[in-house]
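Let us begin with a simple case.
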Amino acid sequence: MEGLRQRLTEFAAARRWEPFHTPKNLASALTVEAGELLEIFQWLTPEQASAVMADPDRAHRVRDEVADVFAYLLQFCTAVGVDPLTALAAKIERNELRFPVPGAPSEGGDVNSESGSSPV
């Protein structure tokens, strides 16, 4: 992740784009690219959307748009000083507390004792 972030920083610096890579501009660009990803799926049925990656042309577009979204997200995180992996881990932890598994024992209990399954 750090290597990709550094490559993006160097790419922008070599082209003298830093003045334009403000948090507002990067957030705007991220939104535009997410919209372009959504456009691929806009009028598809759920079944068609599930099969998008089977079509080589559409799959290529999806991969390109995912890359664009990810690139702008990394650049945004760099601009505002957010470690995206740390932020995601913290958010997952908060969501686990906010949205407990239905029927799971309360905190401190062994969730898997009855089912015999192991956590993944």
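The second case is a distinct protein. As before, the sequence precedes its structure tokens.
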Amino acid sequence: MTPAAALELADWRRRVAELYAAVRAAPDPVEGHATWRQGRDDLFRTHPQSPLPAGDPLRASGLPFWPYDPALRFELPLRPAAPATLDVDTGADGTTAMERVGVLELPGLGTLDVWWLAQYGGGLFVPLRDGTAGAGSYGGGRYLLDTTKGADLGGTGGRMVVDLNFAYHPSCRYDPAWTCPLAPAGNRVGAPVRAGERMA
């Protein structure tokens, strides 16, 4: 990686973290979601580390989303789960080790594993592959949280904010040059989640 690219990537991550901080500070989740959408579109449109190739029409139109559904926002305890580990091939970045640290029980949808990214700095990671995958959303799934990169909706009192309206596509959905960890078996639900980013 060149020095210029390293600084660009650091700036991308800083701006993502600032965006999620603004979401957490918003007076209500709907306003926070609008802030997130606008900020994400701005990054994808203008930032040199955008996963959108030059000339991609999504730079002009913005990323497509389902309308905000307040019923899909939860504050959930992290339940215990049997220990499990995964080694995920992330292409040029090597292998990322993930350790399951618990499970979230989503009302009416099922359970999702919560992973700790066992790398320098660590971070919580919650991918999701739901019944829209391959049609309404990317076939490999979407991400709900990735605190290593600043995608963190917060929580208090031992509970995590999990808002399915913030489900977003990994970079590999937009450009095959990226290699992304996809949703393992414990992060798949059969029900369609018509919230968050969509294909069109």
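The helical segments are 3-25, 29-46, 58-61. The chain is about 20% helix and 20% strand.
Keep these points in mind for the review questions at the end of the chapter.
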